[in-house]
């Protein structure tokens, strides 16, 4: 089997693992809407979701070991395509055509965007000063987005703000993962206990908790699409500012990337529109309302 074929297989498996993790997180959020997010750390299914996300990350790294970033990154948007039917099947309903259209817009825009911002050079590690700047800037941005989410009254607005914060946190974690991996190959295992590695862990865990909060306020489709959109956009900004990356095609490429981001953003707007499902017949209690989530 060729290296490219292995990269595609690992990338699709990574997307499936991320999708399954998102679905488990969303179901937990729906069941535990009345308890603090941190209380989920005491639940086995939360750690199962963490394991699925960890597996997705490991498979993504494996895919990058066999194929170029320009091939692997666009396949990551399959997370959204796979998560929608997974979540609908678990809830016992079908994905509406409107949500399929929203997913299509988001995926199409993201694929074009990722192809245009793919780095044309090999992987590079962040310097100490750049890594510190990134950590401080990202922490400030995430804190501002979290504060805005707390002040927002509409549940959808809270959800999308938390999802953007999660996407930023995941993008920073990815950039620092690359840096830690490159430094580990040069400096040995000591790089795994460096301040950069600690910030990486904090951003990864923070992204998981923020995405959990986003799913609690707005279901699966819109938050997952927003995380999937915010992550590569933040990664592209990090690459261009700190690693010297540029849009492929110069100014026309940048214009095309902005158009692609607009299409993907419209997909998120479509996914954010709630679906109306038939009410249960009289005499049959709504299971979602009578369920009392346990605190353990």
Automatic annotation (TrEMBL):
PANTHER family: CONSERVED INTEGRAL MEMBRANE ALANINE VALINE AND LEUCINE RICH PROTEIN-RELATED. This is Integral membrane protein. It comes from the Bacteria. Keywords: Membrane, Signal, Transmembrane, Transmembrane helix. Residues 1-19 form the signal peptide. The chain crosses the membrane at residues 71-91, 103-121, 133-152, 159-177, 189-210, 222-242, 254-272. The keyword Signal applies.
